[in-house]
Amino acid sequence: MQAFINTFDVEDDEDDLTDPAALTAWLRDRNLLDGTAQADGADLDRARALREALRDLVAVHNRLPANVDAATDEVNRATARARLAPRIDAAGSSQLVPQTHGVDAALGKIIAAVHRAINDGTWVRLKACERGHCRWTFYDASRNRSGRWCSMAVCGSREKSQRAYRRGRIPGR
Ligand SMILES: [Zn+2]
Fold this sequence. Notes:
7 helices; 12% strand; alpha+beta; 6 strands; binds zinc ion; two-stranded antiparallel ribbon
């Protein structure tokens, strides 16, 4: 979920989900996409819309400006498309499972993770970095939930090279 939001680097204007094939590969790498399903252009638009809605919703956790109503509507529309339904299993656990296939189902699994995070109290710890245009989504593990930046080292020093390193991309290699 955090990785999904961070497929778009707001500050550097770099989108990992450049085309339907990139979306297909991203979802398949994470075992979210079933069978031989392939994303199309409409799927890509919906995935990006969901991603930006989730970014708005985590930005609220550190009181950054966001259009909460529009974001909530977007997530709930994606939930309806995925036809998420509560299921219990023999082990006595409960989860939301998509009752459809393809990219809509894959995005539904991401939304199911949001619901799990809301229920276990970790959702409010996902935040958008406050520094400038960073907005990188990070998990605030501080005791009193006071975190404001994705990384003190990165957004403290404002080193682009460290930012690239954090994303696992080292320029020039
Ligand atoms: Zn940051």
